[in-house]
């Protein structure tokens, strides 16, 4: 035998010398859930050890993230039920929770990169990412509101807006409005290949944003999010978003879609984000709680696999755990 592959695995020194992929704090975008109130830090039932923060505690949390070397956050807000409607009215409130959250983070840590979620579901009385009429989700009317929402976030100080809705043409609408209004440097991270996945359940608990069960309201998001069976279409969606002005594209969820991540990585020349979603987080937590999986090892293995598949950056609820583990 001339070739013995195991020579490169004899000890940690040689293994680390030839290792092809490493995760670092630079890889992460930290999703954060924000609620109204004071001194609120509520654990999300289906996401153990993950919390919703009121603005005062959000400030503390982002300082801690910064000190750990985590330099980018992705903000989501839980909107009080009474402020929800079918038009995204509250989403455009210049003094809304998202707009105040952006300012809070920027005041606490000015260098922190702030990305905002742009989608109507947290604001929708029907739990949809767009305006609902006659049992349908209206595309163009929704895209117009999403563009206004992006502008409102940009005015509040967001560095990037991140549309997670999957309406057609919304990147074009958003980019055009931001350019017209002088926000040339506000970036767009598009959820470009976002699948109609069953892994979003815990997130919908976190924001109380699941589609409502009512007559004439679609019960799922399959008319706008992608069919998990489709691969070519993921590339089409992504290339279109780039043409419409997306700076960063995204594949979501992570683990079940790593073939798509690699296809897209090979097809585009912009950064590719991967969202390791709430259900992926919950599965690991649940199995680890039962002693069925080794938590830390599984976390690092999954994050490494996501990066190896081609992720430039990873939105992950494990970001804090991961940076503590790698140092
Ligand atoms: C909705 C949105 C979802 C997530 C991010 N933005 C859920 C959905 O599409 O229903 C999911 C994130 C996660 O599960 O961690 N605009």
Automatic annotation (TrEMBL):
<keyword id="KW-0627">Porphyrin biosynthesis</keyword>
<protein>
    <recommendedName>
        <fullName>Delta-aminolevulinic acid dehydratase</fullName>
        <ecNumber>4.2.1.24</ecNumber>
    </recommendedName>
</protein>
<keyword id="KW-0350">Heme biosynthesis</keyword>
<comment type="pathway">
    <text>Porphyrin-containing compound metabolism; protoporphyrin-IX biosynthesis; coproporphyrinogen-III from 5-aminolevulinate: step 1/4.</text>
</comment>
<dbReference type="GO" id="GO:0004655">
    <property type="term" value="F:porphobilinogen synthase activity"/>
</dbReference>
<comment type="similarity">
    <text>Belongs to the ALAD family.</text>
</comment>
<dbReference type="InterPro" id="IPR001731">
    <property type="entry name" value="ALAD"/>
</dbReference>
<dbReference type="InterPro" id="IPR030656">
    <property type="entry name" value="ALAD_AS"/>
</dbReference>
<dbReference type="InterPro" id="IPR013785">
    <property type="entry name" value="Aldolase_TIM"/>
</dbReference>
<dbReference type="Pfam" id="PF00490">
    <property type="entry name" value="ALAD"/>
</dbReference>
<keyword id="KW-0456">Lyase</keyword>
<comment type="subunit">
    <text>Homooctamer.</text>
</comment>
């Amino acid at each position: 035998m001339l070739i013995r592959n195991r020579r490169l695995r004899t000890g940690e020194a040689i293994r680390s010398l030839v290792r092809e992929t490493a995760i670092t704090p630079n890889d992460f975008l930290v999703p954060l859930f924000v609620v109204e109130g004071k001194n609120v830090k509520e654990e999300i039932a289906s996401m153990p050890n993950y919390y919703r923060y009121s603005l005062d505690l959000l400030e503390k949390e982002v300082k801690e993230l910064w000190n750990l070397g985590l330099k980018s956050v992705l903000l989501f807000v839980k909107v009080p039920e009474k402020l929800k409607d079918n038009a995204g009215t509250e989403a455009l409130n210049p003094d809304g929770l998202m707009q105040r959250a952006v300012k809070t983070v920027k005041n606490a840590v000015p260098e922190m990169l702030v990305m905002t979620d742009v989608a109507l579901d947290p604001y929708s009385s029907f739990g949809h990412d767009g305006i609902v009429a006659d049992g349908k989700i209206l595309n163009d009317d929704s895209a117009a509101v999403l563009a206004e929402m992006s502008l409102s976030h940009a005015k509040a100080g967001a560095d990037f807006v991140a549309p997670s809705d999957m309406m057609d043409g919304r990147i074009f609408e958003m980019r055009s409005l931001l350019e017209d209004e002088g926000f040339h440097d506000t970036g767009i991270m598009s959820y470009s290949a976002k699948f109609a996945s069953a892994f979003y359940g815990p997130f919908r608990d976190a924001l109380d944003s699941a589609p409502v069960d009512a007559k004439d309201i679609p019960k799922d998001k399959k008319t706008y999010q992608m069919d998990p069976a489709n691969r070519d279409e993921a590339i089409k969606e992504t290339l279109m978003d780039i043409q419409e002005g997306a700076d960063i594209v995204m594949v979501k969820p992570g683990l079940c879609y790593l073939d798509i991540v690699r296809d897209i990585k090979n097809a585009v020349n912009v950064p590719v984000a991967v969202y390791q979603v709430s259900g992926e987080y919950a599965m690991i937590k649940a199995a680890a709680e039962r002693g069925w999986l080794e938590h830390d090892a599984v976390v690092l293995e999954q994050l490494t696999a996501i990066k190896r598949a081609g992720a430039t950056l990873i939105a992950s609820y494990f970001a804090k755990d991961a940076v503590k583990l790698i140092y």
